[in-house]
Amino acid sequence: MIYPVAVIGAGPFGLSTAAHLRARGIPVRVFGEPMVSWRDHMPEGMLLKSTPVASSLDAPQPGHTIADYCDAAGIRRLVTDEDIIPVETFIAYGEWFQQKLVPELERVRVVSVDRRGSEGFELKLDSGESFTARAVVVATGLYGLAHLPPELGGAAADGPTPTGLVSHSSQHHDLARFSGKELIVVGAGQSALETAALAAEAGAQVRVVSRGRGRVAFGAPPWKQPKLRPESPFGRAWSLWALSYYPHPYRYLPAEARHYLVRRVLGPLGAWWLRDRFEGKVEVSEVSGIVRADVSDGRPVLSVQTLGGRGEELAADHVIAATGYRVDIAAMDFLGHELRTALAVSRGTPKLGAGYCSSVPGLYFTGLPAAASYGPVMRFVCGTEFASPRLAKHLAGAHG
Ligand SMILES: Cc1cc2nc3c(=O)[nH]c(=O)nc-3n(C[C@H](O)[C@H](O)[C@H](O)COP(=O)(O)OP(=O)(O)OC[C@H]3O[C@@H](n4cnc5c(N)ncnc54)[C@H](O)[C@@H]3O)c2cc1C
Q: Read out DSSP for 11-40?
C-alpha cells in the first residue's frame, strides 16, 4: 500500500505537523519517540526559557495549548510571562498532545529514505518493514546535529562521551554525577548557563568558559521589558516581532544574512530567572578563544587565549561543550545518498521553497533544518504556529 505521507519525528514539530495533516483527512504514518530530545537530551530539573505563550504546539483545533493541558491535568495554569515551565511539565504536555491528536504514532526508527521513481519514497523501518510514501516530512529536530568545536577534539579522540573527558551538553540528563568534581562548561547560551547552574546546585565546582567580553548575560524580567515596542513570543522588539510573525520573506534574503540571523537572533542570553542561581555560584572565564584541548594526568586541559592575548591553561575533571547544534544534511544519514546529493542545499542546510518543500518534490523539512529558510523562529516550539498549517496546506495541495 502507498501511504500519502510519512512524518519522521515525534517532537513538537513532527507532532504538530501530523495533527494538521490528520485534520485535513490525509492518511499519515508518524514515526519517532515522543518528546525524546526533551526527556533524554536535556538536563533533569531544567526550566524552559520560553514563556507559556511561546510554548504551545500548534494544533488545528482549539483546546491543545499548554494552559489547556494544565487544566486537563489539574495543575496550576501556566499562562503569564512570569510562569516558568519545568521541563517535566512540558514533556507531559507533549505526550498528552500526542495521545489526543496523533494516537497512531509508531515508536519506530526510520532507517532509510530513498526515492522510488515517480511513486515517491521508499522507507525502511528498524522493525524490518518497508513501505512507500508519496511525501515525507523530516522533523528530526536536534537528532544527530550536536556540534563539538574541533579545538576540543584533542581531549575527545573517540568523540564526546558523557563518561569520558569531554562531552556535549545533549549527552547529559542527570548532572548529579558531577557532584564533588571540577567541571568546565564551554559556551554562553541558555543551555551552557543552565547546565552550569544545575551542576553547581548538584555539588560540582563549575567554571563557564565563554568567548568574548560580556558574553555571559541575562535577559530582562517581564516587568522590565520596554513598553513601546511590539510584543513577540521572545520579548518586546521590532526585529523579534517581524521574525516571529512574518517569516515568509525570510528565504528571499541573501544567504549570508539568513545564516547570520539564524546564529545571532535570539542567540546566547540566559533567562532572567537564572541570574540569581548563577552569579556567585559559577566562575566565569571570558577568553578570546580556546586554542586546543589536551589530556594531562588523566584530566582535560584547555589552552585558552585570554582577552589580553596571554596563553593560559584551565584544567578540570570533565568538560561539557554546550556549543549547540549545526544543521548538516550530510549528518542526516537516514536520507539515502542519492537523495542527499539531489537536494539543493545552502551551507549544509536544505533550501526550502513555499510550504517547506525542498528541491526534491514531496520531501519536506520543518523545525531546525528549516531555520535557514524561514528564520530563527523555527528553532523554537512557537515556530510550529507558522510552519505546521502552511506545510500541511502545501502538502495537501500537491499530494493530498
Ligand atoms: C537545552 C535546550 C533547551 C531548549 N529550550 C527551549 C525552550 O525553552 N523553548 C523552545 O521553544 N525551544 C527550546 N529548545 C529548542 C527545542 O529543542 C526545539 O524547539 C524543539 O525540540 C524542536 O522540536 P522538533 O520536533 O523539531 O525536534 P525534537 O524535539 O528534537 O524531536 C526529534 C524527533 O525526531 C525523532 N527522530 C529522529 N530521527 C529519527 C528517525 N531516523 N526515525 C524516526 N524518528 C526519528 C526523535 O525520536 C524525536 O521524536 C531547547 C533546546 C535545547 C537543546
A: SHHHHHHHHHHHHTT--EEEES-TTHHHHH
